[in-house]
Design brief:
globular; mainly alpha
Length: 461
């Protein structure tokens, strides 16, 4: 059973009460002050993970009407955000891919193509995880690849925490899925959440294809960088991967020919992605997602039991709460008041400098807390700062949501890290040192992308 951290809960409640009961500062409304109090409570609970993220979000939903920040009907209606249904449909599609076995077949086939040498096998794990995370939640990809990579490690007879190659193998699993997860709106929860907050604030969105064009090139380059860091930082202390190749061949034979169910799920997945890309803006990403999920049931390609097993319902609840808090901060002026304080400290920074600060803070914060929580905490305040600095809100979404997905070091940063670390093949020190190096390179590359590539797309002036 999960351990509840009572001291953190008590501190969060005391801080919330102190802020709510303090005299209202000049330039801030009472509702805005109470919104900041709830925000502070959620900040502590999310950072300390004292309660499950979803439970903290539910608490926020209740406190908003109790403290007269938002009417109850408005607060609860934010669970009906189109973004929530987009991610729900995407989770159902991912569940069908995993439950049918098609995702495992794709992963095995992809990794087998790289099984010629120790270095190429590392590349296979990085790129297969990265590519699959383009189209599925990164935590689902990591969970799916985990037994395959574990089987490879055992076939190679690498010793946990002693073999440098074993460490590289499992970090490749984590890093590949994390990097691929930022490339599209399907790889992680933070991007759809950012779009939901963007829509609540400004009534605008970012198309599926637009996001992919802006971020996928960065993601692909980062996969090559991750492979370079892994093969240079960790010694390739094995000579051959023939035994791993044999294990993968055996796995492929055991899967047999493509089943009717796999073909059906594959066809619906392709059609769904194509519709997202070609008509997602006109039809609506959420509409396409839910229609795809319904079609899966119509053709009996998935059962509700499988959906219950694979869909992360906690993330769905987290979405509604995070969007509600962000909406409350915006509507009451709380976010702007906080942003004005931050802008006073950042006075003199050019607009691009502010973007860089957003990216660095998001990248650092995501190592300590969930990347979804990082986006929920940062984005409302960053929007307020951006308004004062004359920065387009779409640029803020990219500057916060992309680096918030790049957690490479600590297990608590993102589920793929926790899954890979649970195998026991590498020490935390290895992940921290190598992950810090990869993080630094990623930030430099992202800043270059923001400076020279995003202006070509009209994201930045």
């Amino acid at each position: 059973m999960r351990r509840v951290k009572i001291p953190s809960i008590v501190i969060a409640l005391i801080l919330c009460a102190l802020i709510a009961l303090a005299p209202t500062p000049a330039g801030l409304t009472r509702a805005g002050q109470n919104a900041i109090a709830i925000f502070a409570l959620c900040f502590i609970l999310w950072v300390t993970n004292a309660l499950p993220l979803a439970v903290t979000s539910l608490l926020a939903i209740v406190l908003l009407p109790v403290l007269r920040v938002l009417p109850a009907d408005r607060s609860f209606s934010l669970f009906g955000s189109p973004v929530v249904f987009f991610i729900l449909g995407a989770f159902m599609l991912a569940a069908a891919l995993m439950d049918s076995g098609l995702s495992t077949r794709l992963a095995v086939a992809f990794i087998r193509q790289f099984g010629r040498s120790p270095r190429s096998l590392i590349a296979g794990v990085v790129f297969s995880g990265g590519f699959l995370a383009f189209w599925m939640p990164e935590h689902a990809v990591a969970a799916m690849l985990f037994p395959i990579v574990l089987e490879i490690g055992r076939a190679l007879d690498v010793t946990p925490k002693r073999s440098r190659y074993g460490a590289a193998l499992f970090l490749a699993l984590a890093w590949g899925t994390v990097i691929g997860g930022v490339a599209t709106l399907l790889g992680g929860a933070r991007a759809p959440l950012a779009l939901g907050i963007l829509g609540e604030h400004y009534g605008i969105s970012i198309g599926f294809l637009d996001w992919m064009i802006a971020v996928a090139p960065f993601s692909i380059v980062m996969m090559f960088v991750a492979h370079f860091v892994l093969t240079r930082f960790f010694t390739m202390d094995i000579e051959s991967v023939a035994s791993a190749k044999a294990a993968l061949d055996k796995k492929a034979r055991a899967l047999g020919p493509l089943s009717r169910r796999e073909k059906g799920v594959g066809l619906i997945t392709i059609l769904t992605i194509a519709t997202w890309v070609l008509a997602g803006v006109e039809i609506g990403l959420a509409t396409v997602s839910i229609l795809a999920a319904v079609v899966l049931f119509v053709f009996n390609l998935i059962s509700w039991k499988s959906v219950e097993e694979y869909v992360n319902w906690g993330v769905i609840l987290m979405y509604g709460g995070a969007i509600a808090i962000a909406s409350a901060l915006h509507q009451t002026g709380g976010a702007k008041w906080l942003a004005d304080i931050a802008m006073a400290r950042a006075a003199g920074l050019p607009a691009f400098g502010v973007i860089v600060v957003f990216a660095v803070v998001a990248a650092l914060l995501t190592e300590a807390i969930s990347n979804v929580a990082a986006v929920a905490l940062l984005l409302p305040v960053c929007f307020g700062i951006a308004e004062g600095a004359g920065i387009a809100p779409v640029a803020v979404v990219y500057a916060v949501a992309v680096p918030a997905g790049l957690a490479f070091a600590l297990p608590m940063g993102t589920p793929p890290n926790a899954i890979a670390y649970s195998a026991g093949y590498y020490r935390l020190r290895d992940a921290v040192v190598a992950g810090a190096l990869l993080k630094g390179i990623a930030l430099v590359l992202l800043i270059l992308v923001a400076k020279f590539y995003w202006p070509l797309l009209g994201v930045l002036p």
